[in-house]
Amino acid sequence: MDKLQIQGGIPLEGEIRISGAKNATLPILAGCLLADGLVTVSNVPHLQDVTTMIELLGSMGVSVTIDEKMRIEVDSSSIKQYFAAYQLVKTMRASILVLGPLLARFGQAEVSLPGGCAIGARPVNIHVAGLQAMGADIHIENGYIKARADRLCGVHLVLDTVTVTGTENLMMAATLADGETVLDNAAREPEVVDLARFLCSMGAKIQGAGTDRIVIEGVKRLGGTAYEVLPDRIETGTYLVAGAITSGHVRVKNARAEHLDAVLGKLQEAGATVSTGDHWIEVDMRGRRPKAVDIRTAPYPAFPTDMQAQFAALNTISNGVSTITETIFENRFMHMLEMRRMGAEIRLEGNTAIIKGVERLTAAPVMATDLRASASLVLAGLVAEGRTEIERIYHIDRGYAAIEEKLQQLGAKIRRTPG
Ligand code: EPU
């Protein structure tokens, strides 16, 4: 298995381009199943999870072609089976996103039930209950969700918990349902809005995406479209923290500041000068040590759980004591234990980490446990004294396109070694 080696201590300086958003691309590719026509998706990030979603569509007989610019063409007219195998779903939970589209368009779906995950139990009960309320006949058999429906019916749903992929699955299902569906307590993440815009470009009638009430008027048919995915706000935030943690000066382009209010606010609180413009953001922390900042994760527009680990890394070397409270996933602190091995002073109390900033971290061999945890270990390695070696970096390839190249572009000494 490949490893990343990082020689820490270099203030990052320069400009990089942000890739398309993973968590918008995945539902959009699943949403292609709804289209009676050819769909072209551009600004797709080069990531393992995207490859898995393409493989999943291909395994159903859907024709998927990719050009050298990562523009993807999807034609679902050749679909042969409405089946998502355990072998694929176990490697990527977002595979569950094919459930709503398959059921809505083809009246049947058999999708492996995702199991637990490194960061939490992550049930999909809200996806299933919502589809049942829309008239689907669903039962779980041999680890698979088996679903059938002649035509789904519009309903008024109040979601028990704010769920991103749950909102997306139900919104997609409702586009072809009979009548109006109202999703209350819907997720407001920019990726939900991007998916809604994509669906509308195929002819769907959706209002309120980006608020906690989404109203979908079902239509009989959705057609083909060409759509460009929005930039990845979590990748953006990660590189901005890389600038701040190294007391550097980093500019990201193809980024949307308006999706990062909570994150940019925390970077400013940490002492960084943050400037934004049309599709670019800059963080300047030159000559300064960051100040510790308290973080509490919550659904958008509050501070994202997907940026929690990166700010934990920042706080380990910041001036002062901070608390980090994780409210979305029950086991998203594994990076804390690895950072302790690099000299971080972290105490865990339930879902809160208390971090006392130290002057310096020291390099150590560490292990990536999930996607954002691995990003935080890269950040810690960028400031640690000595050479940090990160194992199990396949996690990072799921969500960060060309991470070594982008960090090298900013002056970091980082390389991948085959293991
Ligand atoms: N939940 C339920 N029942 C459900 C669905 C969710 O109890 O049916 C709970 C979850 O267990 C969790 C909370 O609701 O406690 C929120 O989970 P959510 O469903 O919003 O998470 P998700 O849709 O599975 C997406 C992202 C995650 C991101 C979360 C939270 C995608 C493909 N994944 O997951 O991204 O952390 O929203 O913002 O969009 C990542 O990119 O590293 C990542 C993990």
What low-confidence regions span 5 or more consecutive residues with pLDDT below 50?
Answer: none
Mean pLDDT, to the nearest integer, reads 97
Q: Name the shape in a single word.
A: elongated
Major β-sheet, in short? 4 strands, mixed
> Gyration radius, to the nearest Å?
21 Å
Percent strand equals 15-25%
User: What's the tally of helices?
Assistant: 14
Distance between the termini: 5 Å
Number of strands: 24
Q: What does this protein structure show overall?
A:
Helix 1 packs parallel to helix 2, helix 6 packs parallel to helix 7 and helix 8 (233-245) packs parallel to helix 10 (308-316). Helix 6 links the parallel strand 10 and strand 11. The protein is built from 14 helices and 24 strands. Helices cover 31% and strands 25% of the residues. It has helices at residues 22-31, 48-59, 86-89, 99-106, 125-133, 164-175, 190-201, 233-245, 261-269, 308-316, 334-340, 371-383, 394-397, 403-409, and strands at residues 3-7, 13-17, 39-42, 63-66, 72-75, 83-84, 108-112, 137-141, 144-148, 156-158, 180-184, 205-207, 213-217, 225-228, 249-253, 273-277, 280-284, 295-296, 321-325, 345-349, 352-356, 365-367, 387-391, 413-417. The longest helix has 13 residues, at 233-245. The mean pLDDT is 97. The chain is α/β, with parallel strands linked by helices and 419 residues long. The chain binds uridine-diphosphate-2(N-acetylglucosaminyl) butyric acid (EPU). Uridine-diphosphate-2(N-acetylglucosaminyl) butyric acid (EPU) is lined by residues 23, 26, 94, 120-127, 161, 163-166, 305-306, 328-329, 371-372, 399.
